[in-house]
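Possible race condition, two jobs.
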Amino acid sequence: MRRASVRVRAAVGATLVVAVALVAAGFLVVATLRGGLADTARLSAQNAARGVAAQLADVPDAEVGQVDGLDGDEPAQVVDADGKVLGASDPLEGRAPMARFARVERPDDEDEQDAAAPEPSGPDDKADPDDAPDPDDAADAADADDDGGTGTDSRTDTEPRTRTLTFPVDDDGEVTYDKEDIAGHQKFSVAAVQGRTRDGTPVTVYSGASLGAQQEAVSTVTRSMLFGLPVLLLVVAGVTWLVTRRALRPVEGIRQEMSAITASTDLSRRVPEPDARDEVARLARTTNETLAALEASVERQRRFVADASHELRSPIASLRTQLEVAAAHPELLDLDEAVEDTVRLQTLAADLLLLARLDAGERPAEGRVAMDALVREHLAQRAADPHPVRVEVLEGGEVRGSSGQLSRVLANLLDNAQRHARSEVSVSVRREGDGLTVAVADDGEGVPEAERERIFARFVRLDAARSRDEGGAGLGLAIARDVAERHGGTLRAEGSSEGGATFMLRLPLAGD
């Protein structure tokens, strides 16, 4: 199955993240709103209960029903220690003590409705058994006033205790026990406060505050969120889609151009670079740099193949000519020249093979090479060189790498110096800091400063008038620098005090 595009994944991911965040925020908002409104209702009930309890201290038992706070539409009661209702607001007029009210479920038929709305009881009557709460509600009521809700505790503690009760309400949201007027049920936060009348009667004051506003506000906010969340998620998905599409448009341009380059094999083409300084622009620049490096590499390879073919053609053609002449006229065979051409051909083939291995990233063998000993070994083998070699300094020191490859570097430098020297060549090995420097100098014409880097290119020879038979193929210095760099060192050309050229090979010393 194909994976979705980046745009689709980005849009879906952003939408999911926003959805999770909004849902979590919605739950937090609703919980905070519900808790805040519940706290407000609880404080309102507590304040009302405290107000009634404070007035009772100046009111005799007979006038408890006339206290302010018992004449409103909110449920309120004053109950003495014997469970007798001394006063109540209109909704609870003639009802049993509030602490005995059970949570009422909405009746499904008229018989259940009658059961849910018990008959009023007079002030002297005990609560009807149908009004008694179940054990759980009785436990909650006990928490409300610490005495089972009947006021048997004679303390005058004004610290309120609250609980939530459900009362039947009419269409206007007012508490009612008339079965014809019951429209539903609503929760009230009920507070209980202990007090005393002027006659010294201990009483419990109950006062309730409706939680309908809380329920309505929570319902409104929830509906708004349920309606707004999908709309907001659609907006987020659409904006993410458009933004991602615009951001990825340059990437599509890069892809198309790369596809065209691959199809045409024209490495001179470049991908478009956006004006913005963002990741896509950096990607385009890096891609163009890669294409430029690839183009240079391919061009270098083409030149290398062409130059190698040209260099190989001369000794092969010369050798073939000599062999053909020898086949027809054996007495005319120049054996020495044939051997010389064969040696040239062998040397060139070896150089090309080494360059191919270096280009393939072959790492030098791990070993320890004493450069002073290597120099002595070479000088001992080159007694027949046309110019004498003067040794200036040979300081001891070992480097890590391939003895064979480093020997090849030293041989190439000495051959180059012998080829261009007038009278002598000098060699020195010095320790300089954490490295070892090998210097090979000649007293020839030297290398112009502008050409000191170009001579390290492959198949480059500065003396255009010199024949190939007198010089090399122009690979010696290129091989020497490549080997030096593979060993973590450098090779550069400088002027010589004798007027010629000095080649400085610097290699890091081998650690202990």
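Job #2 (started ~2 s after job #1):
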Amino acid sequence: MILTDNTLYLYEIKNYSGEYYYGEEMLVKIPDFKVSNPLVQVQNTKNKLTIFLKELRYDIEIKAFAVYVNPEFTLFNAPKDEGMLLLSQLKNHFDQLKKESKPLTAAHKKLVVDLIDYQTNPMLFIKDIPNYSFVSLRKGIGCEKCSSFDLKLHRTYYHCRSCDYESSINSALLSCIKEYQRLFPNDKLTAAILYIWCAEMVSKKRIQRTLKLLV
């Protein structure tokens, strides 16, 4: 986040690489890999931040952007003025922001202090995390909405039998891999181990394609 005299700028950073086509709900990587549109994610974050600031009695405009920082990322059919920034646009964006900004007041500094005070420190909860191992944890791909493992997989999307949510298999697979990274940050990511982690619900070839997005 960046705070100026009258606006709070919110940035969702993505490091995707390769060629994608823009879609309102999904980005499609050539030839057929799909991930959720980061603009949807950043809009949800913006809405939550807006509600949070109103609860703290702050009335400030929030501008949210999905930012693609990888120089090897290409996005075809991208709409103009849709809240996204490519690497080639960042310098002009921040130059303009700096040019238009004015000195912050005591009220702005109080907002910063409040945001810092309300941050969650994950270190506080480490002692409450139970011991776990790869063997002891349940395997499978979970629903991105309700975390249920009761999914029906189709060719490109899944249907959650618990909440009726439907989304891209690739998006759920990416979330599953990131979950493994959080749980086992020191382990090497391989298609073989992730194939087991996903309960063999998708092929190793598909997992390998997904891993390339994380490089």
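The mean pLDDT is 87.
Logs attached separately.
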